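Hi all, posting the design record for the shared folder.

TITLE: backbone redesign
STEP: 1 of 1
STRUCTURE INPUT:
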């Protein structure tokens, strides 16, 4: 492995003038790049899918445009426009593009992850105005940027800013118990805020008490919170597809569009209509 890394380092040094910005470049050619932080940018067509895979570096994926769906064995996340997800190194995950997507990726080596204490589990995060500017600047740097110059300091600031971003509640964890998983999959396929605990427990063939206890043990949240998350994730996808707010609210079982808007605003900090305008 060391010999391979030395060869890679010599290759990058020899080709330093040829390897320029990392726009429209996947990470694979840069796996052995002797830089702790690598930033790339890519455009993807609607419906593009990356099946289960993993990276040797941690991945901070920023949805500059469009919505990204992230799935791991632990659950399902949605990454709305102008937000990002963090996937730790070696975590198997799949990604799907909900509409046309422009994705900026920050791939972070283990030593840098540890230095700034980036999370050990997947999550969706807000992205500050400063972080967006840093990403836009970093993606146009040469692959072999100078570590001791402005570029090196920019990358350090970029990772430090990532470490301060607040986590967003855009996750629907999946239960391990197969009875719970089957019942939850039905709600994922047809989300409704009107689905009751008793109905889902009966579908799982469990008493209300047993279902409640096992569900929290498996997912870490109560059923009502999980149901709300499922509906919110469904709403984000439908807003991304251009569906009107009133139709989404009624389809998801909310008593009124205003009730839906209030629930949406509590999590994303903006109304569904403003979110749709900004997507």
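Okay, here is what came back for every position:
SEQUENCE:
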């Amino acid at each position: 492995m060391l010999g391979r890394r030395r060869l890679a380092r010599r290759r990058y040094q020899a080709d330093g003038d040829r390897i320029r910005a990392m726009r429209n470049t996947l990470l694979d050619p840069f796996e052995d790049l002797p830089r702790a932080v690598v930033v790339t940018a890519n455009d993807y067509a609607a419906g593009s899918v990356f099946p289960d895979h993993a990276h040797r570096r941690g991945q901070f994926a920023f949805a500059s445009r469009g919505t990204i769906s992230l799935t791991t064995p632990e659950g399902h996340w949605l990454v709305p426009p102008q937000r990002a997800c963090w996937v730790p190194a070696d975590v198997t995950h799949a990604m799907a593009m909900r509409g046309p997507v422009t994705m900026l990726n920050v791939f972070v080596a283990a030593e840098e992850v540890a230095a700034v204490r980036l999370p050990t589990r997947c999550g969706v995060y807000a992205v500050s105005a400063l972080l967006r500017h840093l990403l836009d600047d970093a993606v146009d740097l040469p692959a072999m940027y100078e570590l001791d110059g402005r570029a090196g300091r920019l990358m350090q600031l970029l990772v430090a800013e990532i470490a301060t971003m607040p986590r967003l509640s855009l996750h629907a964890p999946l239960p391990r118990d197969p009875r719970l998983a089957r019942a939850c999959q039905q709600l994922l396929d047809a989300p409704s805020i009107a689905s009751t605990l008793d109905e889902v427990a009966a579908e799982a063939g469990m008493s209300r008490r047993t279902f409640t206890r096992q569900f929290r043990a498996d997912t870490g949240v109560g059923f009502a919170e999980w149901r709300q998350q499922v509906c919110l994730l469904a709403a984000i996808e439908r807003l991304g597809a251009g569906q009107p707010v009133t139709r989404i609210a009624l389809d998801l079982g909310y008593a009124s569009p205003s009730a839906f808007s209030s629930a949406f605003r509590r999590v994303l900090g903006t109304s569904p209509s403003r979110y749709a305008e900004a997507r």
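COMMENT: Residues 2-165 form a domain with the Jelly Rolls fold (CATH 2.60.120.280).
Let me know if anyone wants the other runs.
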